[in-house]
């Protein structure tokens, strides 16, 4: 049920005490499949601390050609 509330652009935390992993991620893609009685969600994640984002209206983070580049 929780996976149904997730969207591309949401931030999530994944932690695993046994292996010492605790990191924040942003969802950059998702694929869902449904079968009778089951629902599977696969997420494509990018580390939040190593990804640069275009922040609209924020000086230093949104000027096309100055602080950001457009790739097609």
Number of strands: 3
Termini separation comes to 35 Å
Describe the oligomeric state of these chains in a short phrase.
single chain
What fraction of residues sit in β-strands? 35-45%
Number of helices, counting only DSSP H or I runs of 4 residues or more: 0
Specify the structural class: mainly beta
Elements, N to C (H/E):
EEE
Helical amount among residues, as a percent range?
under 10%
Average pLDDT figure = 80
Question: Main sheet, how many strands, which sense, barrel?
Answer: 3 strands, antiparallel
- Contiguous low-pLDDT stretches (5 residues minimum) are none
Query: What is the alpha-carbon Rg in Å?
Result: 16 Å
| Widest sheet, order of strands | 1-2-3
Global outline: flat
Considering the chains and any ligands shown, give keywords for the structure:
0% helix, mainly beta, three-stranded antiparallel beta sheet, flat
Question: What is this entry, summarized?
Answer:
By secondary structure, this protein is mainly β. It is built from no helices and three strands.
Structure report:
By secondary structure, the chain is mainly beta. The protein contains no helices and 3 strands. Strands 1-2-3 form a 3-stranded antiparallel β-sheet, with no helix packed on it. The radius of gyration is 16 Å and the shape is flat. The model has no long low-confidence stretch (mean pLDDT 80).
Please describe the topology of this protein.
Blueprint: E1 11-16, E2 21-35, E3 38-47
Antiparallel strand pairs: 1-2, 2-3
